[in-house]
Amino acid sequence: MRPAARIQAAIEVLDLVLAAAREGGAAADTIVQRYFSMRRYAGSKDRRAVRDLVFAAIRACGEAPESGRAALLLLARDDMALAAGFDGSPHGPAPIDDGEPVAVAGMAPAWLIGRMDAAGLGEDEIAALVTRAPLDVRVNTLVTTVEAAASAIADAVPVAGVATALRLPAGTNIEPFAGRIEVQDAGSQIVAGAAPARAGMTVIDLCAGAGGKTLALAAAMRNEGRIIAADTDRARLSRLAPRAERAGVTIAETLLLDPGRELEALEGLGGAADAVLIDAPCSGTGTWRRNPEARWRLDLARLGRLVETQRRLLDIGATLVKPGGALVHIVCSLLDEEGAGQVDAFLARYPGWAAEPMALPFGRAHGAGFRLTPAHDGTDGFFVARLIAPC
């Protein structure tokens, strides 16, 4: 593909990304893959160049741009070589018209900037949310050691302070190491470690998804005890079994929940868990480095629904914890409605419960919990709090 054709392809992909953001469709990564699955003539360099253009444009635009072309024109404003690619050639974009719309540079939609300001995040903290994320993995200590994994993977670097984390070069092929390592951000490993999971315990992972944190909990428990991995998403939950088999995890069992009727499936587990971990559905504001177009998917109505879902999950979780046990609330969000404010509301609803101070290797105390951010910690953004049931 000529440079102009790559620009046109990026414009087309961006238009698809914008449509998906409006309609709740696929993520940008998936859209890029689908686009090129229909265009086998594009080589690996072309695909990489188009993908880089797409994500550079997404990161540059705070508000959703009018079109993919408007987003690319924002980049072309400061890149003469890119501007020259708007040449009107057969497979390239039309020449630039001085009066046509150009996207506005920014870090996030204005209403979200206001929410983040209120949560105590400065401009540098917000800007770091749309930088590129590193490739972190968790070493499965049930089957290998961090040292052995680091020596087997070229240029792997241990993440200081996170016992099971390695940081790998972008694009590293991890398939040969399946079972020994799992892709998991160092921050995600840290907040999963906030659950006091030890050998012999009963632990419930209430929003288990595909089981990344379930596997981490099993390793922390030395594969001794019982983990119930529960979720309402059958497709995601079904991915846990093969992952657990590869990882040598035998203590995890899956439990499919019916949305709105979760307690029916959880009957018999009331007051039984030493720890309940709730990695709750959230706005994902802490993961924009990986999904920068998520900034355009969120609005006040959706945020309100997410906050209500989190509240309901915390209420469910509270019924499952034994006296003196722990309820761990995690969101990959930096909005206080989902983090510190959510925990304050829980403590107001449940007299006798208390937030337990934590000593985590990264992050800073925030409200009744702990907050990690890309700028301060080099991880995705998270809020985590550990709540202890009255005895």
Give the key terms.
391 residues, Rossmann fold, four-stranded antiparallel sheet, 16% strand, nine-stranded mixed sheet, 13 strands, 39% helix, alpha/beta
User: In percent, how helical is the residue content?
Assistant: 25-40%
Task: Give the C-level CATH assignment of the largest domain.
Answer: Alpha Beta
Report the C-alpha radius of gyration, rounded: 22 Å
CATH superfamily of the largest domain: Vaccinia Virus protein VP39
Tally of separate domains: 2
Low-confidence stretches: none
Strand content: 15-25%
CATH architecture of the largest domain: 3-Layer(aba) Sandwich
Please write the string of helix (H) and strand (E) elements: HHHHHHHEHEEEHEHEHHEHEHEHEEEHE
Give the overall pLDDT as a whole number: 96
Main beta sheet, described?
Answer: 9 strands, mixed
Please work out how many helical segments DSSP would assign: 16
Instruction: Report the count of strand segments.
Output: 13
* Alpha carbon gap, first and last residue: 67 Å
The name CATH uses for the topology of the largest domain is Rossmann fold
User: Which of globular, elongated, flat, extended, rod-shaped describes the shape?
Assistant: globular
Task: Return the structural class.
Answer: alpha/beta
Account of the 3D structure:
By secondary structure, this protein is of the alpha/beta class. It has two domains: 3-106; 185-388, Rossmann fold, CATH 3.40.50. It has 16 helices and 13 strands. Strands 5, 6, 7, 8, 9, 10, 11, 12 and 13 form a nine-stranded mixed sheet that branches. The chain has a four-stranded antiparallel sheet with strand order 2-3-1-4. The mean pLDDT is 96.
